[in-house]
Structures are given as structure tokens and as C-alpha cells.
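Progress report, Aim 2. The chain analyzed during this reporting quarter is listed below.
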Amino acid sequence: MKIMMTGGTSFIGCYVVRRLAGEGHQITILARDPDKVPGLHTLPGVQLVAGTLTSAAVITEALRGQDACIHIALGQGDTAVERATADTLPAIRLFETAADLGIEHIIYTSSIAVFDSVPGRFSDTVPPRPAKFYGATKAATEAYLLAFAAERSVRANVIRPGYTFGNPAIPGAPIQSMPELPEIAARAARSEPISVIRNAGLQFIWAGDLAQVYSAVLGADVNRKVFTSLGPDFITWEQITRWAVQVCGSASQVTVEDKGIGLAEMTYDVSAIERCFGLRFDPTGRLREHLAYLAALVG
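Predicted C-alpha cells for the chain:
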């Protein structure tokens, strides 16, 4: 299959490219800096074109003749208008161009940030209710894509990752920049005290498993579906901290502060990826590997 992808040089994007290229797909990546990740140039069937989400002519040519479009790139902005202008509007233009050119399938990368950070159990059928502009732009873009699927008869699906982690997918690729795991690993590597909140935690997904979701959605006969993509189990920061201490052979003292948080107050139903694709992920082994990798960076 011929695929045009945005965000292919990002952390998640590199994992998706590696997976799909390994399956024999031909991938054209739109990249602000085509040389950002040298390892991408070594993957079979992968080419990079220079451009941004506002490079209309470049995007049109990159989409021409493709079978599918995977949109991973994110436009940045601080205010609501900046977010909508830099992210939602370019995505709408991308979807419209893809539909005009007869692209068969569009996959959009959203986020569990479409939901407010309040206690509850959230599933793919719960209407989005974002609390921040980032979540709002994701929710709005989801809605536009699903409308394109209905209005223009293009097949379209949404993938909603949560906390995604992993080592670099290929030489030169970035790692996840969220602060919690690197901070815990660094403190454990230095045998510094580590304080965590009792019962606080998240569901996680290793980026390689997330890439498997993209592959499954790409190859499946599904349309106008949303797939929350995480491991099903809630893992506390206390547990992760104790893993870090263990893998580092650390002398860190772990303090657990009780702030009255109930265990797994906010969780996500990921049964759709198991029901549709037979995918169920356990990230614990990969989390331990990643903690060891991060600790080794401390030096």
C-alpha cells in the first residue's frame, strides 16, 4: 500500500514508519526537516519530502497517487485561536485534499486528552469533553474527519493514544519527552529520594505496540471508528518507582504520600482494539527496559 504520512519524524511517527515499512508498505513522509532522523533514510520504501502542514502544494503532490493518509503531526499554539489555526485548520485542509484526490483511507492521531481529567471510566463511545485547548483541537479534528467520512465517502478512523513511551525506534529518532519516567529513572540512578502519591498512576502503551494498532486499523475494513490505544491495566507511579529502584540497583528511599486519591479513579476502556483486532497489550516488561535505558543516560 502507498501511504502519505505527516509526523513521521516524531517519536510515535518513527515507530509507525518502522512497522509499516517492515510490512512492505511504501511511505511518503511530509517533514519540516527531512534529515531530522537519519535512520529513516535507511528504511525500505520510505521517502521524505520537505514541507509543513501549511505547504498546500507540497501536500497535494505528496498525496497524489496514494492509497492512504496517516496524520500524526501536531500544530502548536498557546491560545485557542493559535491551536485552531496551527492544528485543526491544517488538518481539515489535509483531509479535504485527500478526499479530493480519492484517497481511500485516512487515519488521524488524536489523544485521550479529548476527555476532562475527572474520575470516571471513558470509552470510545463517550462524547469528548476536553478541559484544555490541546484536547479541544483534537476533539474538533476528530469530528471533522468523521464528518468527511460521511460527507465524502472516504474511509476514516481515529486512534487515541494515551501515555506512550519507548526508546528511540531507529538511529537518530527521538524518545518520548513526557517528564515523569525520565525524572524517576534519573533519581533512581543517582540513589536520590523519590516521592510519589499513593494510588496515582496511568495506563501506558509502548510505542511499538501503538504502531501495531496503526497497522491493524490500516488493514481492517472499519470506518468512522475511534480506537483508544493503551494497555488495559492501571499502573501506579509507586510501582514504576520500585521497578526503577530495582533495575538500577538503587539505594533511593521511596516515600509514598497519601492525598486521598482512590486507585484507578480515571481509566480508559480499550476493549475496542481487542474486540476488533485481537490486540491486548501488557507494557510492564517494556516499562522496565525503558527505565533502564533512561537511567543509563544519566551517566
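DSSP finds nine helices and 15 strands in the chain. The chain has a mean pLDDT of 96. These observations will guide the mutagenesis work planned for the next reporting period.
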